[in-house]
TrEMBL record:
Keywords, in A-Z order: Membrane, Transmembrane, Transmembrane helix
Transmembrane segments: 17-35
Any Pfam family the entry gives: DUF3152
Region annotation Disordered: where it falls in the sequence: 40-79
Taxonomic lineage: Bacteria, Bacillati, Actinomycetota, Actinomycetes, Micromonosporales
Domain DUF3152: 72-243
Residue stretches of biased makeup (Polar residues): 59-68
Protein name: DUF3152 domain-containing protein
InterPro entries: DUF3152
Protein source organism: Luedemannella helvata
Length: 264
C-alpha cells in the first residue's frame, strides 16, 4: 500500500471520529435544555429563546378593584305596562304629614319590582332625605290604595319619554321627570348608568334622581349651583351638568336643608 493511500484512509477515519464527537456533544446539550428541540415543545427558557422574542409591554394590574365594570345593556323599550310592588312599607320619618306612594316597574325590561321598591324606600328613608325636615312622612302602599299621593315609575327610555310628554316635557329619552298627575318617572337608562362625568358612584346618582323628582312632588322647584366648587343642591338639574358644583344626592347636608338660588 502506498504512503499516499495510507494518509487518505487516516484522514477519513479522523473525520468520522470528529463527526461522532460533535453529534454526541450536541445530543447532550439538547438533553440539558440548552438547545431547544422545537418551537412548540415545552422546555426551559434560554438566553437564545428570550432574545428572539419581542419585548413585552408592561401589563396593567388585573386586580378586581381596578377592573372597570362593563356598562349594563339597557333596553330602550319595554312592554308599556307596569308591575306594582305588593304590600305596605313602614312609615318613613318621625313627624309631618303622611304622604303615601306606590312603586311600579315597566314589564319586559328585566328589572325587579321588589328590588327597585326596596331601593326607593331606602333612599326616601335615609336621614339625609326629605324626612329630615320633620315636616313630611312617607309610606309605600300597594296599588289601588285610596288616597295615594304619587307613584314612582321605573320606565324604559321610550316609555318614559311618552309619559313625560303628557305634561309637555320633552326628555329626548334621556332625563327623568315628574308629572302634575302624581307620576314620578325614572328613566331606566339613567338609573342603570347615571350620566357621564358625574363624579360620584351610581348609588349616589340613583339617590339624587329619586330625591330630585320626589322633591318636585313635594313642591320644590329647580335650584342653581351656588358657586364653583360648592356642593350641588339636590334640586339642581345635575343630570344636565354640574355647572362647576360637586355632585350631591341629598336635600339635607350636615343636618340642615341645603339649597341653591331658585331658578324660575
Amino acid at each position: 500500500m502506498s504512503v499516499r493511500l495510507e494518509r487518505t484512509k487516516r484522514r477519513r477515519r479522523n473525520r468520522r471520529v470528529l463527526l461522532v464527537v460533535i453529534l454526541a456533544v450536541a445530543g447532550g446539550l439538547v438533553g440539558y435544555g440548552v438547545l431547544r428541540p422545537g418551537a412548540d415543545e415545552p422546555g426551559p427558557a434560554t438566553t437564545a429563546s428570550l432574545a428572539s422574542e419581542p419585548p413585552r409591554e408592561p401589563q396593567a394590574s388585573s386586580a378586581p378593584n381596578q377592573t372597570p365594570a362593563a356598562a349594563p345593556k339597557v333596553p330602550t323599550k319595554g312592554s308599556g305596562t307596569f308591575g306594582y310592588a305588593a304590600g305596605k312599607g313602614k312609615v318613613l320619618g318621625a313627624k309631618g304629614k303622611l304622604r303615601t306612594f306606590t312603586v311600579a316597574v315597566e314589564k319586559g325590561m328585566g328589572a325587579s319590582v321588589p328590588q327597585f321598591a326596596a331601593r326607593v324606600e331606602a333612599i326616601l328613608g335615609d336621614p339625609r332625605s326629605w324626612i329630615a325636615g320633620r315636616n313630611v312622612r312617607l309610606q309605600r302602599v300597594p296599588k289601588g290604595t285610596s288616597g295615594t299621593d304619587f307613584t314612582v315609575y321605573l320606565a324604559s327610555p321610550t316609555t318614559s319619554e311618552k309619559m313625560c310628554r303628557e305634561d309637555g316635557l320633552y326628555t329626548e329619552k334621556y332625563t327623568s321627570c315628574r308629572l302634575g298627575s302624581g307620576k314620578v318617572v325614572i328613566n331606566l337608562a339613567r338609573w342603570l348608568t347615571a350620566v357621564p362625568d358625574y363624579g360620584a358612584p351610581l348609588e349616589d346618582y340613583q339617590a339624587y334622581a329619586i330625591n330630585h323628582e320626589v322633591g318636585h312632588q313635594l313642591g320644590h322647584g329647580h335650584e342653581g349651583c351656588p358657586a364653583k366648587g360648592r356642593t350641588a343642591p339636590v334640586m339642581q338639574q345635575q343630570t344636565l351638568g354640574l355647572k362647576g358644583c360637586v355632585a350631591n344626592a341629598w336635600p339635607y347636608v350636615d343636618g340642615k336643608r341645603y339649597a341653591g338660588p331658585a331658578i324660575p
